[in-house]
Hints:
Layout: E1 3-5, H1 15-27, H2 41-63, H3 66-77, H4 81-117, H5 119-125, H6 150-159, H7 162-213, H8 217-247, H9 251-258, H10 262-266, E2 267-269, H11 279-288, H12 291-342, H13 346-377, H14 380-389
Helix pairs in contact: 2-4, 3-4, 4-6, 7-8, 7-9, 8-11, 12-13
Amino acid sequence: MGVIFSFMILPRGSSLARCLVVMLLSALSSSFSFAEEKLSEDLELKLKNGISRLVGTKKQARLGDVARVVADVVEVTGVDAAGAKKLAEAYPKAVDQSMPVWTDSLLDAWRGLFRSMGPQFVESVENIAPSMALNPRNLCDGGTRPEDMAVWTETLKSVLNAQQLAAWEKEAAARAAVKKDEVDRLTETTLRSYRDGQKAELSRETAAVKSATNIDGAVVKRLDDAAAALLEKMQPVWEAKMRHVFGHFSDEMRRSFLNSAVMSSMARMNSADEARNHGEWATAVKSALTPQQLATWTGALMKEKAEEEKLVAEHVKTQMLEERERLDVEGESLLAEVKSGLGLADDRIVPLTAASRAAVDQMAASMDAERREALMRMNAQDRRQVMAAGRQMVNPATRTRTLRIE
């Protein structure tokens, strides 16, 4: 699953707001997933189009690293000029080999982020600046670098003699040890914060059950014990996901987080990762309650969900008022272009007007449904935060959509 960070939501039209969105999505470009399922064909295309805006800049930047990378090997191993030349010739091949790996990794990460943030994330990446590919603190490179590719490692083994290769492997091991220590510390801090939050959430859940059903102290203790056991069981799962993402951070990004309080205080995973949504917690509650108490609690949950859905619908409806106005303007503009470009008479434009309105209706309905679904998929804390702000995270003026009239 993806990771969500708390963030400031600024007024529409703010250039700082747009920067924050792009920085957010880029900083999180390695998700807490091992393999995200594909999205719809339309969403996959939008994410791939966003990535395509970065690929050229990223590749050129990597090709520009050849002198630095080769000089590093020369300094550590003392390889001669002939060997350095062979390494320099191999590096562009390693770059070519690395780019599909990088794009696949980024696409997988962005799928997770879409599941965290919904359509607002897609709207941000549709206009992502190619320059975002240049900041090593923003895009995660671990496991996708040219130096990680087979063509590069094989060239090293063929160019370096035994003594030189031993020196290089020793240096690589030392660097790996530094990275492991950084990942360990970052994971420990983040895991402690996340577990504390999950413990508090289960405590609130137990308190809600008690309030709704009047369970006695013995039942409360059963639920507390079940919560403690579930936290112990989930901790290794959370830890593995955290180590996975931190291990894929670029060195610069990982160290920037180590030197700040961001990860320890603001990192949260998706609702599916939360202990309260685990099947074992539902089983524990069910087994602790009498049939009557369970019915009361189930009713309370259904009521809570209905209220949340109502609030979400109202929130999205408010958002869509301006969105619908923009779509109407876009449709009218498109019709005017068609009429002018083809020299159509007024009576010939009538069918196209009807088709345009139908297309706008369909697009608006789709956007409404997507936003509702995305909000309901968020964990409760993030949903409350977004809805309380009452603003979108992106400036509608920066978005580009294609309105097609079939």
